[in-house]
Amino acid sequence: MSTETRALVCLPTDALRDDIPFYTKTLGLRMEMIYPADDPQVAVFSGYGLRVRIEQGAQGAPGTLHILTGDPDSFANGARELTAPNGTTIKIEPLNPPLVMPDTVHSFVVRRLADQAPWVIGRAGMHYRDLIPDRLGGSIIASHIRIPDGGPVPDMVHYHTVGFQLIYCYKGWVDLVYEDQGEPFRLHEGCCVIQPPEIRHRVLFASDNIEVIEIGVPAEHVTTIDHEMELPNGPANPRRRFQGQRFVHHKISEATWSPFRLPGFEARDTGIATGTQGVAGVQVARRSSGETGWALHSSDILFTFVMNGTMTLEGEGRDPFPLEPGDAFVIPPAMAVRYADPSDDLELLEVSLPGVFATHAQGGKDL
Fold first, then answer.
1. Which SS3 state, helix, strand or coil, does residue 108 take?
2. What tens digit of pLDDT does each residue of 16-41 get?
3. CA nearest to 69, candidates 54, 84, 80, 83
């Protein structure tokens, strides 16, 4: 007795004889079955990882088939959309479409935890809070992610088709494993990693009430499950670059502090600007000493998350915003701002794209 199991997509037709040449010759599928012989009512076709059953008189909509190919121009004479005799729409699409980076729609954004933005349940049961609601025209997504109950995470080996992606451990700890990076490791509070484009990885185990900040560029990107790769894989190759970017694991225990780009603060650089070859930069800034001042920047995207302490965000032509832990903001380029009234324990996570940009003091402001 055979234990093989197959799944079929069933599509209706009014004239099976018209569909057979379309599905075999135009689409290049192989006919596997046809019956009954004297007056065929059903035909089964296979190809491209799909099995299709065309049944005369069957109920239901004709549906849509997407065919992904590495050479769309040579498939079906270059057509991008066809209609089969039975009414099914056939869409021909690239197998590996290029990553499209939308132009940034600059805006001044303040997202406060006290405003009670909803938490939604996302992949692997994790809770997500959107930190940039307008996503700057689709150019970036920033998420505050939490896992309320610690323990094993029901994750699978997967990868993301992205231009840049950061995971910063805000609270607790999480165990991770990455392609070519050796054995699983624990990402502790205050530490971060970047996930270079299409690096395979998996979330293994989390502490109770783990919280992370995740930044992804662009906002809409595909997550693909890799059912073949097992992690950890070997041998380790930590210097490998993935589409020009190198995996970076920044550890707070190894950090050094130096003056920040804004007066009155100091920062620890994560090495991410170097690891991404300038695609993005990530710094953690904290209050040091001295007066704060007005300044503007030339970065395309400048995102900040308040991790600890309090401050007042003053923006040119804007009402001041008192901020506290869990709040986030985006400052558009060429807008003068000041981080006023910073508490002694203020700590900020700053992410910039690109990783290197200019900051200019803005004189003439009433401090």
1. coil
2. 999 999 999 999 999 999 999 999 99
3. 80
